[in-house]
């Protein structure tokens, strides 16, 4: 199997459409509305690394809101291993992403503050996930 990057990215978008109040972007937005999930193209692809096919690592950025206690609680929901907002749980609920890939898994997560525009108060907290897909 050879990876179809667009198909795998859209399958991730579908899997990560966790909540009606959270926009999940199919393409990188110019001005994202928070809270949101942005699925980026893979940062690496290793071709024919397994018998199952190519291995790609996608970046997923979760942005929740300004630095305040409420935003922190929401962000921790995305970071958690289980729960309605859990990125990990969303991926592990169907590791084939609807049959579009052979396997997927969450490799790791880092968090921080991100600038979403050019204004002085346009800094939000969020987290970056790396998700490995074999297709």
Short characterization:
This protein has 135 residues and is of the alpha+beta class. It has helices at residues 5-15, 69-79, 87-92, and strands at residues 23-25, 36-50, 53-65, 103-115, 123-134.
Looking at this protein, list some descriptive labels.
alpha+beta; 5-stranded mixed β-sheet; Alpha-Beta Plaits; 135 residues; single chain
Shape: globular
Number of strands: 5
Strands across the major sheet, in which order? 1-2-3-5-4
How would you characterize the largest beta sheet?
Answer: 5 strands, mixed
Parts with pLDDT < 50 across at least 5 consecutive residues: none
Order of helices and strands: HEEEHHEE
- Approximately how much helix is present in the residues? 10-25%
The CATH architecture assignment turns out to be: 2-Layer Sandwich
Mean of residue pLDDT? 92
Q: State the separation between the terminal residues, measured CA to CA.
A: 6 Å
How many domains make up the 3D coordinates? 1
Radius of gyration: 15 Å
Structure characterization notes:
This protein is an alpha+beta fold. The chain has one domain: Alpha-Beta Plaits. It has 3 helices and 5 strands, in the order αβββααββ. Strands 1-2-3-5-4 form a 5-stranded mixed β-sheet. Strand 4 and strand 5 form a beta hairpin. The radius of gyration is 15 Å and the shape is globular. The relative contact order is 0.24. The model has no long low-confidence stretch (mean pLDDT 92).
């Amino acid at each position: 199997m050879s990876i179809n990057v667009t198909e795998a990215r859209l399958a991730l978008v579908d899997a990560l459409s966790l909540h009606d109040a959270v926009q999940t972007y199919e393409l990188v937005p110019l001005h994202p509305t928070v809270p949101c999930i942005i699925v980026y193209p893979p940062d690496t692809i290793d071709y024919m690394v397994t018998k199952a096919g190519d291995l790609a690592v996608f970046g997923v950025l979760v942005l929740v809101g300004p630095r305040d206690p409420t935003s922190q609680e929401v962000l921790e929901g995305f970071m958690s291993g289980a729960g309605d907002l859990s990125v990990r749980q969303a991926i592990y609920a169907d590791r084939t992403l609807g049959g579009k890939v052979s396997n997927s898994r969450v490799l790791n997560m880092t968090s921080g503050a991100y600038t979403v525009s050019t204004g002085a108060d346009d800094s939000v907290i969020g987290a970056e996930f790396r998700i490995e897909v074999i297709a």
